Amino acid sequence: MKLVLQRQYFPSGTNGILSFNGKEICKTIELPWKNNQRRISCIPEGIYRIRKRFSSKFRWHLEVMNVKNRDLILFHPANDALKELNGCIAPISELSGEGKGIRSQIAFERLKESVFPYLEKGFVIELIIKNKFNEKSN
Question: What pTM value is reported for the model?
């Protein structure tokens, strides 16, 4: 089972399209690419395993596992990457700018509804992050 995140990089944020088994679930926003620096950069392109996780702040959400030199990379609601994210990925319903979107909570629920049933049955879900084009723009 594969979640594919196709990114487009901008100076003030990273925008993406998230698909699950070939079907688009939502758009995404992240921090801009800053060489994988903790709390100020999106994570590197690559293949990661996803797991279901609970916290008091975000309740049930998804965690991206085994990110080199990083931890606690989550999928959680946010509408402005620079103001609300520390390296995590926010599902959104609609892009409204570089690293900005709207109706994140709705997109987050859609993502959970798509992925949680498979995780709960023991399926392994891989997140494949790749550039929508060929290279990073910054």
Answer: 0.94
